Amino acid sequence: MVKVRNSLKALKKIPGSQVVRRRGRVYVINKKDPRWNTRQG
C-alpha cells in the first residue's frame, strides 16, 4: 500500500527511508518500516 502525499519533506527524517525518483514520480521507500512507503506526483 503506497500513500500519495503533497510533501515528502517530513518523511526524509524517518530512519531507513530513501527518496527515489522513478518515471517522473518521487517515492519514499522504507524497508525497515513499510508503512512509510509513499509517492508524490
UniProtKB/TrEMBL annotation:
UniProt-listed Pfam families: Ribosomal_L36
Coiled coil: none
Keywords, comma-separated and alphabetical: Ribonucleoprotein, Ribosomal protein
Gene Ontology cellular-component terms listed: ribosome
NCBIfam families linked: PRK00831.1
Family of this protein: Belongs to the bacterial ribosomal protein bL36 family.
Protein name stated in the entry: Large ribosomal subunit protein bL36
Organism annotation: Curtobacterium salicis
